[in-house]
Amino acid sequence: MDKIRWGVLGAAKIAREKVIPAMQGKEGFEITAIASRSFDKSKTTAENLGIAKYYGSYEELIQDPDIDAIYNPLPNDLHVSYSLQCIQAGKHVLCEKPLALHADEVQTLIHARDKHGVKAGEAFMVASNPQWKKAKSIVQSGELGTLRAVQGFFSYYNRQRDNIRNIAENGGGGVWDIGCYPVFTSRYVLGEEPTRLAALLDVDPEFGTDRVGSVIMQYPSVQMTFTISTQLVPYQRMFFYGEKKALEVRIPFNAPIDQANELHLHHGDIVGHKVEIIQLPVSDQYTEQAVEFSRAIQQDLPVPVSLESAYQNTRILEAIFQAAKEERWINLT
Ligand SMILES: NC(=O)c1ccc[n+]([C@@H]2O[C@H](COP(=O)([O-])OP(=O)(O)OC[C@H]3O[C@@H](n4cnc5c(N)ncnc54)[C@H](OP(=O)(O)O)[C@@H]3O)[C@@H](O)[C@H]2O)c1
Questions:
Q1: What are the GFO/IDH/MocA-like oxidoreductase domain coordinates in residue numbering (predicted)?
Q2: Domain 126-286+315-331 belongs to what topology?
């Protein structure tokens, strides 16, 4: 397979503004087609972005024999059903986070993936970002000393009534939209799964979706806390604290594509402490994701973020809702 021919389901903002541009004009893969519920919208989007084929239904794109792989950026509640259709049509599928709203449904996708012999994964682009690979290698090298704590924060402000993030039926709310990131990146860096968690959620009375959430998770080797919000000043950080040094991932999730990402290594002391700045080369994490996923198809390698990982992440996110509702620790083992 010379070039992986990708199709996109839905003219989603993330697809139009980030993922499609990041996947165009590259070796090894191309965006061949886009589908929308509206034929006019797919035509306009295709013309604006220079995409050769466009369809007025997702099903037509899924059945197109000239498409090898499908990127699924539909609302969260449609991730599993459409990814399943893609797999059943023999297509590889890269599905946006959160891949599912129920862990059991990921098992359905795993069975289908194995039956149809395709590649399938969750689009956690952070896993393909050089800054997170570096963060993982620093933590795992022991340079920080014994690691004892991880902390995360991720927030933005969005009260748009018609945004899928504020619509409960679409799988809206902060936990599904951004809580998935501190959970995923801590699992990714630590190479462990949390054993139990407790959580507080503040639900928007109008939308019925969570707008602030704080979670404490026990990992086998460390404690982790994180807070997320859909109604706070935009901010994001991740910290990994060892006995000797602390690692700060400064723009952990929405890493810019036009400037170098920085990791800050804090050497201790409260006042005037030394900060070692590690600069990563300028890169686009959505391109890196497409490179790794396309290569996985071409060379029969593991995808960057597997369905097995998605299963674990979904279990943890579900447990956050349960912990908050039942006001107790939830055991994850
Ligand atoms: N990895 C990342 O960095 C990242 C960033 C942002 C978002 N995301 C994920 O990407 C997905 C899309 O997010 P987004 O902000 O791009 O959303 P969006 O702009 O609202 O796009 C969602 C698309 O889904 C289609 N759709 C089908 N049924 C729909 C329905 N009932 N209501 C609304 N849209 C419907 C629409 O396309 P048509 O009308 O063309 O059919 C719509 O454009 C979400 O799962 C989100 O978590 C990931």
A1: 132-247
A2: Dihydrodipicolinate Reductase; domain 2 (3.30.360)
CA of 97 to the centre of ligand 1 (A): 11
What residue ranges do the domains of the chain occupy? Answer: 4-124, 126-286+315-331
User: What are the Cα distances from residue 82, in Å, to 182, 195, 222?
Assistant: 26, 31, 37
Which residue among 13, 36, 55, 80 is best mutated to probe the pocket of ligand 1, counting the most ligand atoms within 8 A of its Cβ? 13
**Would you tell me how many other CB atoms lie within 10 Å of the CB of residue 205?**
7
Pairing of strands 29-35, 4-9: parallel
**What is the three-class DSSP state of 296?**
helix
pLDDT in tens, 179-191: 999 999 999 999 9
Ligand 1 atom closest to residue 14's alpha carbon, by position in its atom list: 16
Q: What percent of the chain has pLDDT over 90?
A: 98
**Model pLDDT for residues 127-136, shown as the tens digit of each residue:** 999 999 999 9
